[in-house]
Amino acid sequence: QVQLQQWGAGLLKPSETLSLTCxxxxxxxxxxxxxxxxxxxxxxxxxxxxxxxxxxxKKNPSLKSRVTISIDTSKSQFSLKLTSVTAAxxxxxxxxxxxxxxxxxxxxxxFDFWGQxxxxxxxx
Amino acid sequence: xxxxxxxxxxxxxxxxxSVTITCRASQSINRWLAWYQQKPGKAPKLLIYKAxxxxxxxxxxxxxxxxxxxxxxxxxxxxxxxxxxxxCQQYDSYSKTFGPGTEVEIK
Lengths: 124, 107
Prior knowledge:
The complex is a heterodimer.
Chain A (H helix, E strand, L loop, with lengths): L3 E5 L2 E2 L5 E7 L7 E9 L3 E8 L5 E3 L7 E6 L4 E6 L8 E12 L2 E3 L10 E5 L2
Parallel strand pairs in A: 2-11
Antiparallel strand pairs in A: 1-3, 3-8, 4-5, 4-9, 5-6, 7-8, 9-10, 9-11
Chain B lengths: L3 E4 L2 E4 L5 E7 L7 E6 L6 E5 L3 E2 L7 E6 L2 E6 L9 E6 L6 E2 L3 E5 L1
Parallel strand pairs in B: 2-11
Antiparallel strand pairs in B: 1-3, 3-8, 4-5, 4-9, 5-6, 7-8, 9-10, 9-11
C-alpha cells in the first residue's frame, strides 16, 4: 500500500515562501508522476503541478510563476515551493500520486493516493 | 482550462436511497474522469476512474457512467458511511480540474 507523508511550515507571513515536502513509502516512485494540490473554501480543489522521476514538471498556469516543484529520487521525496504568498494562498495543501510512466509512455491516471494534508495559513 | 460543473450542490437523502450526481465538462475529456469522496478533515478518496471503473476496495454500490460530456455517479442504497462530499475531476487536459463538489447530507 502506497503511503504519502507530507510536512512543512503551516503558518506564514505575506511575501514569505511556502515550502512543503512529501515522502513516498513504496517502490513506485520512479514509475509515477507526483502532484501537489490545494483546497480552500473559496477556490475548492486546485491542482498546483506535478513532477516525474526525471524532474519533468507541469504546473498550473495560474500559479506557474511562483511555483517550483523538485524531486529527490534517492530519498523518494518531492517538494513544493510557492513564493510571495498572500492570504489567497491559505489552504490545505496535499501531495498525491497521479500519471503512470510505463515503457516510455505516460498513462493518464487520477489521484489515487494522497498525503494527509497540511494546513497552511498566511497571516500578518 | 476545462471547466467542470456539478449538480446538485447539495443533496438530501435517507439511508437506503439511490442517489445520482451529475458532472459536466466544458469540452470533450475522452472519459478521463474520476470521482472522489471526501469527509471533513480528510483527503479525497478515489472511487471511480476513467468514468466507470471502480477503484479497488470501493463498494459496488458506487457506479459511474457517461454520455458525451455528461458524467454521473450513482450510489445505490445509500449507507451511513456515504454521507460526504463528492467531487468529479478531469485528467484529460494539461491542467487537471475539479468540479465544485456535491454534499450528500442526511435527510
